[in-house]
Design a protein that fits this description.
With about 475 residues, the chain is α/β, with parallel strands linked by helices. It contains 18 helices and 17 strands. The chain is globular, with a radius of gyration of 22 Å. This is Inositol 2-dehydrogenase.
């Protein structure tokens, strides 16, 4: 980070590599006006485990002008994938690559950025992208803390940018989750009494020794806003446990989810999908939800937490491996967030909605139960999904909805405000798991009630040089 911003951008503009070739700088000239029918040009920031899906879905609608990643090897693979997508669609545009996301944001020819970095980078990059006039598709979860969610939602309102969060269950999978939410809102099971979200557990931790940082990885920039720590890697141990051998750094790449410093374990991984859909079905804004309690009925942290909810060991994964948090709203509705409901309800991934007049189940493979069967003879109103989405003709894919909103400037299906409201339940549940005690959260103030210790988890202080 000794190179200043101007020097870095001059260096980035002077050269870049695709495969083993070094070629000249891109031209940044582009007409300011854009036709609503013109294909958007994307920049992809982060080329890891979600990149393959995102680049393919994005290139359906427009070309990729840049791929950014702090891992040069991973970045090179990302460029090659993008080139294949371009070749298949005959896009006449060169794909550039960068290590620093600011170089992508400074390009005038990029309309929208797709952020697929680890979670701890999302808020900073998204904020800077909005300030640079870019629209954003950001992988879920959008934030690492509750404070970040509020700041981002407010910044979307301030800048007028389009921000679509990657909670694709709202649109895809045959509209099964949208149908489930519409059924709840339509009273198909009467007053909702209980929702169970089974989201899976996290892997068991094991000691991981320090190792030399790979030459192709900028470890300082990978950490970014997170606290500085040494690089840890155990390639053979990871291989023995069946993990992908191409990702030896167990604090990085596919493994970042199991560290509270960078993510929230399964609570913000699958919770950002299933809890999001459960809250979506309730159709309640922050002001309507009222205070709710979060009770950690069961939690296993094999890397134990100290009295302040901080992991004791720094050389191993630290998110909860097994858990059951009961969220109870003021009106008595219970939302159980569990790793698995096989023993109690017979399923290990999905959402069970239970009301006074019946129950039904939904996951990415099925939508079942008598209320679902009853739709054959008593279907939902023709405009039920339109009312759920708040507009008509929503695209059948999440990226498609994002691109439509780039043109119309409408609010996307998974917007920053509603995602923040729903993800807050997951963030708050994680705090209860880490402290190991019952908490009360007030959505109106976005703070835990009368609990200074819990409120210390609402925000984080970015590492110097990575403030936003």
């Amino acid at each position: 980070m000794s190179t200043n911003r101007r020097e870095f951008l001059q260096f980035s503009a002077a050269s870049f590599w695709v495969g083993s070739s070094v070629v000249g700088a891109p031209s940044l000239a582009r007409a300011a006006a854009r036709s609503a029918n013109e294909r958007p040009v994307f920049g992809f920031i982060g080329s890891g485990i979600q990149f393959q899906t995102l680049i393919r879905s994005g290139c359906v609608f427009g070309p990729c002008a840049a791929v950014c990643d702090v891992d040069a090897v991973q970045r090179g693979r990302g460029v090659e994938t993008a080139r294949i997508e371009h070749y298949a669609r005959d896009y006449p545009i060169t794909i550039y690559n960068y290590e620093d996301h600011r170089a992508v944001l400074d390009r005038d020819d990029i309309d929208a950025v797709v952020i697929a970095t680890p979670d701890h980078w999302h808020a900073k990059i998204a904020t800077e992208a909005m300030d640079a006039g870019k629209d954003i598709y950001c992988e879920k979860p959008l934030t690492l803390t509750i404070d970040e969610g509020r700041r981002l939602a407010d910044h979307v309102a301030k800048t007028g940018r389009v921000l679509q969060v990657g909670t694709m269950q709202r649109t895809e999978f045959g509209r099964s989750f949208a149908t489930a939410a519409a059924m709840v809102r339509d009273g198909r099971i009467g007053t909702l009494k209980r929702v169970t979200c089974a989201i899976g557990g996290s892997p068991q931790p094991f000691p991981i020794p320090p190792a030399p940082t790979p030459k192709h990885l900028n470890w300082d920039r990978w950490l970014g806003p997170a606290p500085w720590t040494e690089y840890l890697a155990t390639p053979q141990i990871l291989k023995d446990r069946g993990y992908e051998s191409g990702h030896p750094g167990s604090r990085t790449h596919a493994f970042f989810r199991w560290w509270y410093e960078y993510s929230g374990g399964k609570l913000t991984d699958w919770g950002a999908h299933h809890v999001d859909c459960a809250m979506w079905a309730l159709d309640r804004g922050h002001a309507d939800i009222g205070q709710y309690t979060l009770d950690p009925l069961r939690v296993e942290h094999p890397n134990p937490m100290d009295k302040d909810g901080m992991p004791v060991h720094t050389d191993r994964y630290n998110t909860a491996t097994q858990f059951h948090t009961r969220v109870e709203l003021e009106d008595g509705l219970v939302i159980d967030i569990v790793d698995s409901a096989v023993e109690t309800l017979g399923f290990d991934n999905g959402i069970m909605f239970e009301g006074e007049n019946g129950k039904f189940f939904v996951n990415r493979g099925k939508l079942t139960g008598k209320p679902v069967e009853d739709l054959q003879t008593n279907p939902l109103a023709a405009d039920a999904l339109d009312r759920l989405y708040g507009r008509t003709n929503v695209a059948p894919t999440h990226m498609g909805d994002f691109v439509d909103c780039l043109k119309t400037r409408q609010t996307p299906v998974s917007d920053a405000e509603s995602h923040h409201r729903n993800l807050t339940v997951c963030h708050a549940a994680n705090v209860a798991l880490r402290l190991g005690r019952k908490l009360t959260f007030d959505p109106a103030t976005e703070r835990f009630v009368g609990d200074d210790q819990a409120n210390r988890f609402l925000a984080r202080t970015p590492r110097k040089g990575y403030e936003w």
